[in-house]
Amino acid sequence: MKHFIKLTAALFTLIALSGCWDAKEIERLSFARGLAIDETSDHQYKLTYQNLLPQSENSQASGRPAFVNVTSRGDTILEAVSDISLKDPPVYSDHLKVLIFSDKLLADQNILQMMNHFIRDDELRRSSYIFAARGKASDILTEPTPNQQLPMPAEKLIELTNNGGYNGKILKPLRIGRASVYCHNKLSFLIQAVVNKNGKTVYDGAAIIKNGKYNRLAGFLSAYETQSLNWLMGTIEGGVLPAEIEQRPITFEIKKSKSNITPHLKNGKLSFHVAVKTKGLLSENQSTAEDSFDNRYLDRLERIFEKKLKSDVKEVIAKLQGQYEVDPVFFSESVRIHYPDYWKKVKHHWDKTFSEAAFDYDISLQIVNFGMMGR
């Protein structure tokens, strides 16, 4: 009996040491970092995965690229994912951080339906970033070259999300989980737009996804218009505001900014009061008449910058209200909080209500420093 017990214990020990039941052989997996999704001429999905390649000292010395692009097509996204295994190792999505949709696909199809597989997939993290390509999404994930020196495009997209403190034209990163919440709550929203310029990936404004049963691309905002919206919503962390004095360039550099949006309801008419307060530097002044040691001169510059910013903000709001009739920056949330009964009446046709709302602005810019040169 003791011999039988020892034999049984040894058998279970061998089973336990044989490895995990769900283990995957690393050599047979493709570790995806980026995925571009396009629509073909025959209305199939075209997937372009950008996968990491295992690197060794020998592969680095030989100039072997650190990544490879793999493409596949299918009538559904999952079919295209599955068919990769017909010619390449199966895709492992645990490390997938970037999803890029082409503008054509976003205009033709519901983004929530396209995200369906990725939201259901328990391997894919809901923290993966979403981008909208101007043109083909596959153009963003450029192919590796021999002796590749440039960073992996999918990795570069992730790194650029950290540059908001240097440039106000960058949106806060949008993750797939948050985009799903917006769609389910019938909210319009913005996606960071990207474009391939001369072989390099560049952040280029924002794509507007309009709510409703379609959740499709309504159009794009330029990079400069995106900065104006960031300023308006209080999400701007850095960047510059160019203007002119006596036909000579001047530049205000943002250091600290906050905004406050207050809705008002009077006689059934909705309006918004937007207050923006910003402190920053006079970082460039090409005027030959500069005298920044004089407070009156600085006051004059502040008024110029305030007028410029007010004009920029009014222009982008007019575009959202007039051209697109859409609220992608959640003015609706302040109405829901301040006027819950009114919100219940207008929430099902909020975009139309938003497009008819009045706006007034209180813009304040303060120059706290003008650097090492004042004349």
Total domain count: 2
Order of helices and strands: HEEHEHEEHHHEHHEEEHEEEHHHHE
Computed Rg: 26 Å
The SS-based structural class is alpha/beta
Percentage of β-strand residues: 25-35%
Number of strands: 13
Helix content: 25-40%
Give start-end ranges of low-pLDDT stretches. 59-63
Helix segment count?
A: 13
First-residue to last-residue Cα separation: 99 Å
Largest sheet features: 9 strands, mixed
- Mean pLDDT score: 86
Shape: globular
Write structural notes for this entry.
- This protein is of the alpha/beta class and 375 residues long.
- The chain folds into two domains: 27-221, no CATH class; 224-375, Nutrient germinant receptor protein C, domain 3 (GMP Synthetase, Chain A, domain 3, 2-Layer Sandwich).
- Helices cover 33% and strands 31% of the residues.
- It is built from 13 helices and 13 strands.
- The protein has helices at 2-17, 57-61, 77-83, 103-108, 111-114, 116-120, 153-160, 176-184, 223-233, 295-324, 331-338, 340-346, 350-355; strands spanning 30-39, 45-52, 67-74, 91-92, 98-102, 129-133, 189-197, 200-210, 216-221, 240-245, 248-266, 269-285, 358-369.
- Helix 9 (223-233) packs across helix 10 and helix 11 (331-338) crosses helix 12.
- The longest helix is centred in the last third of the chain and has 30 residues, at 295-324.
- The chain is globular.
- The termini are far apart.
- Mean pLDDT is 86; it is low at 59-63.
- Pfam families: Spore_GerAC, Spore_GerAC_N.
